[in-house]
Specification:
Shape: elongated
Distance between the termini: 147 Å
Oligomer: single chain
Order of helices and strands: EEHEHEEHEHEEEHHE
Number of helices: 6
Low-confidence stretches: 1-7, 23-34
Structural class: alpha+beta
Strand order of the largest sheet: 4-5-3-6-9-7
Radius of gyration: 47 Å
Number of strands: 10
Strand content: 15-25%
C-alpha cells in the first residue's frame, strides 16, 4: 500500500473523565483555580479590654467624687440653715480681756457660726476670776456667777489649776491660751456639767480656735494684749 495509515485516536466514551492537558495547572475553563485564602491575622483582644477597663474605672471614680461632692454640699447647706436651731453658749471672761473677746463673739454671732447643725449664739459675761472660782467650786452659790458657763477665760492658768484640783469633774476640755500679757496667759477652759450639752462643749473648743485666728488676734493686739 502506498499510503501510511494514520492511527486514529480512540473516541472518548461520554462517561470517561475529561483528559488532563499536560503543562497546565488545574483550571476551570481557561483560568487557574485559586488556592486557599491565606488565614486572617487575629487581632489581640487584651488592649481593647484594658482600654474598656480603664474607662470604667474612670467613670466610677468620677461618679463617686460627684456623689461625695453632692452629699458634702447638701450637708453644708443644711448646716448653714441651722436645721437644729439656735443654741446659746455663755462664756465668762476676766474683765481685762472683755473687749476683744466680746468683739470676737459679735463677729461669731453675726456669721451665724454652726456647730453640729446648731447656730451657736455666744453670750459674754465679765467677772473677776476669784469670784468665778468660788462659785464653781461651791464656796459661794453658783447663782452668784449666773450659773455654770460653757467656758471660762481667767487671766492666768493658776485659776484653772485651782479648779482642776477642787472640782476636776467640771473641766470638760484642756485649757489653752488665747492671748498673753504681763504675767497673764488667758487660758480658755471648756467646762462640763448637767447644763452643758455636747454641742456647747464642742462649741467652746471651736470658739477657742476662733479666738486664735488672725482677725481676733488683731483685736487682742489693739487692746494691748499680745497674740498667742
Amino acid at each position: 500500500m502506498g499510503r501510511h495509515s494514520v492511527a486514529e485516536e480512540p473516541v472518548p466514551h461520554p462517561l470517561d473523565p475529561p483528559k488532563r492537558l499536560e503543562g497546565r495547572g488545574e483550571a476551570t475553563g481557561s483560568h487557574r483555580i485559586v488556592g486557599k485564602k491565606a488565614p486572617r491575622r487575629k487581632v489581640a483582644m487584651w488592649p481593647i479590654a484594658a482600654v474598656v477597663l480603664v474607662a470604667l474605672i474612670a467613670i466610677g471614680v468620677f461618679g463617686w467624687n460627684w456623689a461625695d461632692g453632692e452629699l458634702s454640699t447638701r450637708a453644708e447647706a443644711q448646716a448653714k440653715a441651722c436645721v437644729a436651731g439656735d443654741t446659746p453658749m455663755r462664756v465668762i471672761v476676766t474683765p481685762s480681756i472683755e473687749k476683744p473677746v466680746r468683739a470676737a463673739a459679735e463677729r461669731w454671732n453675726n456669721a451665724a457660726t454652726v456647730v453640729r447643725d446648731h447656730c451657736v449664739v455666744i453670750q459674754i459675761d465679765a467677772l473677776p476670776s476669784a469670784g468665778v472660782l468660788d462659785g464653781l467650786v461651791g464656796r459661794t452659790n453658783l447663782d452668784s456667777i449666773g450659773g455654770l458657763p460653757a467656758a471660762w477665760i481667767p487671766e492666768s492658768s493658776y485659776w484653772v489649776t485651782e479648779l482642776n484640783t477642787a472640782k476636776p469633774e467640771l473641766v470638760g476640755s484642756p485649757a489653752q491660751s488665747v492671748a498673753t500679757a504681763r504675767s497673764a496667759d488667758y487660758p480658755l477652759v471648756g467646762l462640763a456639767g448637767k447644763s452643758i450639752d455636747e454641742v456647747q462643749m464642742r462649741a467652746s473648743q471651736t470658739f477657742r480656735q476662733f479666738l486664735q485666728q488672725p482677725a481676733q488676734q488683731a483685736d487682742f493686739a489693739a487692746a494691748g494684749i499680745k497674740a498667742t
